[in-house]
């Protein structure tokens, strides 16, 4: 793996025009692959964008580019599943876990009050745990975490070892969470899907691991959430550069 040339492959799909022209987000995807995996990867992303519960896209962009920076390998987070029988209980549990990760309670409440507004943002929102303000400065675009992947064989071995089904959605979310929590400014991540038929979400942080919560919203709800609770005293440019540009492969036995 090390020494091999990798390519970052990205897909985004929307309906009623491009995202930046007000189109509805349908699907997105991020992969890292060696050259000989490009065809398969592009096809997999095409398939993902075309068969989505948020609707049929009328705009899709798939692009690849060679990655010139050295690739970092990062270990998967520990995983736990927490059952919640209502969205209200799931969100209360999420608040408790975010607080265990080190975010002050009043800041968590403030972030949750702003979730409806943040759900309009296409990427992630960076929320400063000191000021209680959004500090990514990216307006509707937010921050798109890119250039990470978990090679399939490694993921399948890991999933079998944890007794988890090798679910591709979970693989992608775990790869994002491991990359994001690998930056020292990120204290915790809160996420649930914008897909109307998927209600499991998670809270993730280095020590806490990847804490799945089985119900974070109601079926049929198309509002998602991706908030990174960050220590705004740490250099945010460095953090955003890392999230968008640092290539990362998830690998058991990788860096912490
Ligand atoms: C998404 O699909 O956008 C996020 C899914 C988060 C939860 C994945 C899981 O652990 O089941
Ligand atoms: Mg989605």
Automatic annotation (TrEMBL):
Stored Pfam families: BioW
Catalytic activity: heptanedioate + ATP + CoA = 6-carboxyhexanoyl-CoA + AMP + diphosphate
Listed name of the protein: 6-carboxyhexanoate--CoA ligase
GO molecular function: 6-carboxyhexanoate-CoA ligase activity; ATP binding; magnesium ion binding
Record family assignment: Belongs to the BioW family.
Protein keywords: ATP-binding, Biotin biosynthesis, Ligase, Magnesium, Nucleotide-binding
This enzyme's EC code(s): 6.2.1.14
Originating species: Bacillus swezeyi
InterPro entries in alphabetical order: BioW
Function: Catalyzes the transformation of pimelate into pimeloyl-CoA with concomitant hydrolysis of ATP to AMP.
The protein's required cofactors: Mg(2+)
GO process terms (BP): biotin biosynthetic process
Top EC class for this record: ligase
Quaternary state and interactors: Homodimer.
Pathway as given in its UniProt record: Metabolic intermediate metabolism; pimeloyl-CoA biosynthesis; pimeloyl-CoA from pimelate: step 1/1
Gene that produces this protein: bioW
């Amino acid at each position: 793996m090390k020494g091999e040339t990798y390519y970052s492959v990205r897909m985004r799909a929307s309906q009623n025009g491009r995202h930046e022209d007000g189109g509805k987000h349908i699907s997105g995807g991020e992969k890292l692959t060696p050259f000989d995996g490009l065809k398969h990867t592009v096809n997999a992303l095409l398939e993902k964008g075309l068969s989505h519960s948020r609707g049929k896209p009328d705009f899709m962009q798939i692009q690849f580019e060679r990655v010139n920076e050295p690739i970092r390998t990062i270990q998967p987070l520990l995983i736990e599943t927490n059952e919640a029988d209502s969205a209200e209980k799931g969100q209360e549990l999420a608040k408790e876990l975010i607080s265990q990760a080190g975010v002050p309670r009043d800041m968590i409440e403030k972030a949750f009050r702003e979730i409806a507004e943040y759900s309009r943002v296409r990427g992630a929102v960076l929320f400063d745990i000191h000021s209680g303000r959004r500090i990514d400065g990216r307006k509707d675009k937010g921050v798109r975490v890119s250039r990470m992947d978990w090679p399939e064989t490694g993921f399948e071995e890991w999933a079998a070892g944890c007794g988890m089904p090798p679910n591709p959605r979970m693989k992608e979310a775990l790869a994002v969470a491991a990359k994001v929590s690998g930056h020292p400014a990120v204290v915790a991540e809160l996420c649930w899907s914008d897909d109307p038929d998927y209600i499991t979400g998670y809270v993730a942080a280095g020590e806490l691991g990847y804490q799945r919560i089985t119900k974070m919203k109601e079926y049929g709800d198309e509002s998602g959430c991706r908030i990174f609770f960050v220590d705004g005293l740490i250099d945010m440019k460095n953090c955003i550069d890392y999230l968008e540009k640092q290539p990362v492969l998830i690998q058991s036995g990788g860096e912490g």
